[in-house]
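Supplementary notes for students who missed Thursday's class. We covered one full example, reproduced here. Read the sequence, then the structure, then the short commentary at the end.
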Amino acid sequence: MTITIIFGNGGLGRAVEAALRARSDTAASAAHARLLGRPPSGRHAPVDLAGADLLVEASRADAVAANLAAGLEAGARRAVLATTGWQADRPRVEALLREYGAAAVAASNFSLGVVLFGRLVEAAVELFGPIEAFDPYLVEWHRRAKPDRPSGTAIDLTRRIVAGHPRLAGPADLEVATVRAGASPGMHLVGFDAAGETVELRLTARDRSAYAAGILAAGDWLARAPRAPGLHPFDPIVDELLARVPTAA
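Structure (token representation):
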């Protein structure tokens, strides 16, 4: 039996737990998940994490480094970091992974659709960027309780747009609108507007199952072969998934 520790018992953590439970129902070997909320002390005791094969971080930005440290101290050597907003702690996270010889996959969003959406946005910027009549913009909408604004995905999309657009010197030059209202799990819209027409690319998440599927794919990638200690991006995993998708004759 493999044991996955999920830090964070919110919507994303519960979605990962459900995906693991569904996998266990159909797989030859069982997968057990421990879904952990925030401990009263602020730090999980390593003894409670013993036996973990994989750590999934789906809690809060200010808890990422402490949760990872506790899991590594307990013996885990693989992790998927699905929380956003912790970039200020990145040096500490990288140092922990090197110290314990552990590997982690980190991304602002683990949805396959989001990664491919980002690549579509880059292609669109290449087409529309040189045309002065079209102004680029970005709109993102998440549930009212989401603390980070803009979201990690919006930050990544902004980086992609600015990097490829000849008339944007930096992120401040891109018009970005952030909405926090209701219960939306996530909507991102990239548009190019001219006097006579508007072209828009939109990605809307219906629930968190797409994120959970990507997190499990990242965990599988870590388990398939030894990975170098440190942080790894999600894109190579997406490339492997695409390579295994059969094409129509």
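Commentary. The CA atoms of residues 2 and 31 lie 5 Å apart. The chain is about 35% helix and 20% strand. If anything here is unclear, bring it to office hours.
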